[in-house]
Amino acid sequence: EYADISLKDIDQVSKSSFPLCMRHLFEKLREDHHLKHGGRMQLGLFLKGVGLKLDDALAFWREEFTKKVGSERFDKEYAYAIRHNYGKEGKRTDYTPYACSKIITSAPGAGDHHGCPYRHFSEDNLKAALGRMGLSSRGMEDVMDKVRNKHYQLACTLTFEAVYGTSCDTGINHPNQYFEESQKILK
Ligand code: SF4
Asked: Cα torsion for 176, 109, 27, 103, to the nearest 10°?
């Protein structure tokens, strides 16, 4: 069991324990102060799975979005959807974070940042991102080999093994599983 993540730790934890799909969304949100709907859903539900409480989630999205759209529009257009994801609005369904299979088969359009980088990035962008995660050129080649054979989750598993220097026998099938396995190692 890992401790719930609080707002003050989130930047550090995003660098140490998020899989590439979530690191990318997180960085884009910090950079652009905005994410489109698909990205808000993918990252928002992941963060909920990581243990970010509703109040912290609202503060987190508010901090970025108000820089772009102002607080009135944030409250009117975006806060409801965040509470909705936490089961506090509408049908009060408790929505679960997306698994890799769902993310890999999503089809991000122009300006979207959701999806799986192993599936949806260009080769150059993926290599640059893997370099920022600290992979050696040898490790990177092993990952790219899986990508070329369309084994995206295996590519992510190899990345995990390279980053943490340990084997991941179960393989990666869910971003929240990646997060939890990494927290176990870093503890
Ligand atoms: Fe995210 Fe899964 Fe793709 Fe890894 S394989 S980047 S966890 S969607």
From this structure: 10
